[in-house]
Every structure is written in structure tokens, then in C-alpha cells.
Amino acid sequence: AESPEASVKPKRCLELPGDEGRMAVSLASDLEDALATQKHIFLEYQPQVDLRTGRIFGAEALLRWQHPFLGRVAPPIVVALADDIEEIDRLGLHVLSLACRQRKRWRDVLPDDFVIAVNVSPKQLMNREFYRNVVDILDREHLPPSLLELEITESTMLLPDIEAIENLKNLRKIGVKVALDDFGMGHTSLHYLRELPLDTVKIDRSLADVSPGSVNEHIVKSIAELSGTLNLSLVVEGVENERQLSRLSALGCGRFQGYFFSRPLSADVCLEFVLAANRENRFAA
Ligand code: C2E
Ligand code: MG
Ligand code: MG
Ligand code: MG
User: What residue stretches are annotated with the EAL domain (predicted)?
Assistant: First the structure.
């Protein structure tokens, strides 16, 4: 089945009656409105499971924009749009605040070390103020830094950017975790593993399909070994079925995120899911 957000493709938005330019302008101003009113923008949370401990150890916060008449707009579109209208910092900080606030609300009900992961776009990371802004949000929301993980994606802009690396280094110094998202596709290079200050590597979901003898199998096995050597936590994204899961486990992967375990959920449903799964030892070997 298709996810709800997958049904609103960027093309569909732009192909609506009216010329493309007008549509783009209106989407941009709708996003401005949504940011100003803080309505229609919210987060869903997708649990992350460690099969070695049988526990759900964290959740990734995912941006949702429920457009008043277009329905859900896919997050990469929202991010690109925010980029275009120079609102990426505002959007990004709003997302961070929401995620930190939610994690704080869960303080007494979730395990002490349950981490909330938040996606950060390269542009945000390259802003000199980013470190200060994150510290301010953690202070404001009274959240221990070690409960926040920032997910960054490999990007051609990122590596030469001194500001981005400084921001990450300073954030890690105070205990914030850093994950490299979508590893194994796009601009992937081992260079990133060496140059970026990291805690976690997330294998892209295009690699979750590891049939025996496939190239994917070799790639995933190598990444699993390498992450072990480099002392990085490894998470595989996009696990959709048991077959994928057992093959990935055999290759040395222990932590997973994907529809097989759970789709992204509203905060309340996510909490219920985590509590029930941990109570029932649902994912214990
Ligand atoms: P991502 O960070 O790699 O997040 C994982 C995406 O894969 C999510 O899509 C999630 O719903 C989807 N997914 C999870 N498990 C499965 C599975 O088993 N099968 C399939 N087919 N998909 C699965 P979503 O929520 O549509 O987000 C797409 C991308 O948008 C994210 O990819 C991330 O790059 C970006 N994004 C989302 N929220 C934010 C945000 O707050 N800020 C920024 N800068 N980017 C965001
Ligand atoms: Mg991510
Ligand atoms: Mg990813
Ligand atoms: Mg992605």
C-alpha cells in the first residue's frame, strides 16, 4: 500500500489548473502562512528497533505539512520550497523545537536513553548561527543534548564547508549525536565517514533489498564491517518485510527502521506503540 504522503507528488501539485508559476507562488505563500500560524505543520515519529536488545531505542521525527486543500505535501518538496523562499532556517528550527518539546513531554514515560532523531538540511547546517540556535532550543525545552540526534545527508555542499563541520563538532562536544542519513547512495563517499564527526550511519533504504549474491549484499556487509571498525552505530532504513530483515541481520545489522516494524506515527500513537512493544517484549529474540 502507498503511504499517505506518497499520494501527493510534487508533479501533481504543479499540474493543477493554472500556470505553474502561479501555483508555485501560491504554494510558497501557503508555506509562509503555515510557518507564521504554526498550523498544519507537525511531526510524525517512526520507531527505531534494536533486535539485539529487543528494544525500541529511538524514533525519527518526520516533517508533515497538511496543506488545506492539496493534502500532504511530501517533505522533500516542503524543504526545497522553504529553501527557495529563504525560510529553511525558520522551518528547521520549528521542527527542532517541536521534536525536542515532544521528547521532553515523554520524559517520564519513555526510557531515559530514548533518542529523538531530527533531519537537518545542508543549508541549515551551513549557517553560522546553527550551533547557538540548537543550544537555545535545548535550553528552552530543558532537554539533555544526548537525547537529540541530528540526521544529516551527504551533500556536495557539505564537506568543504567549514561552518557546517564546526557546528557539528561543537554540537557533539555538548553531547548531541550526529547520524549520516541515506548512506550508500547519491554522493556517498567513504570520505564522509572520515571527515564528519559522526555517531551513527543510516543505510539508505535502496540497499535494504539484499538478495543472496547481489551487489547490495556485498555493499551492506562492507558498511556493517566498516561501521563496526569505526565504532559507529548502524541503522538500516526502509525494512519492509521479514525476508529483508533476516538477510540484513545475517550480514551483521542489528538496528532497523521501516514499515515492517512501524510506519511513521502521530506522537500519541508512537508512544503507545513503544510502550506496548517494550512491555510485550515484542522484538526480543
Ligand atoms: P529520510 O530522513 O531518509 O526519512 C525516511 C523516509 O523513509 C521517510 O519518508 C519515511 O516515511 C520513509 N520510510 C520509512 N520506512 C520506510 C519503508 O519501510 N519503506 C518505504 N518505502 N519508506 C519508508 P518521508 O517522511 O516522506 O521523508 C522523506 C525525506 O524528507 C526524509 O528522508 C528526509 O530526507 C526529508 N525530511 C523529512 N522530514 C524532514 C525535516 O524535518 N527536515 C528536513 N530537512 N528534511 C526532512
Ligand atoms: Mg532521516
Ligand atoms: Mg534516510
Ligand atoms: Mg532521504
Answer: 24-278
